[in-house]
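Collaborator request, handled under Task 6.
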Amino acid sequence: MQFLEKSSQQEMIAEWLKGEMWSKRFSGPLKKILRKFKQGQGVVNNPKLDNKRENVLRKKILFTYRKDILRGFPKNITWQK
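Structure tokens returned to the collaborator:
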């Protein structure tokens, strides 16, 4: 594994959601949550990482439908890509 550079929580969340948007297993639940939040797929497929409102929204979306895997997740993580 080669580390290229540090990443941010916002980027990690955006990439996680983007990956699940194309997943047969997770795209259905993700699209349902997007409808619940009255959001189109653009907030996932074309994330604006410099937009604080979008970052907060993506975090809420991820934690709404993936809370089981994220419960107890360490808070102070250094993300890398």
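The cover message to the collaborator said: "The chain has a mean pLDDT of 92. Residues 9-70 form one domain. Please let us know whether this matches your experimental observations."
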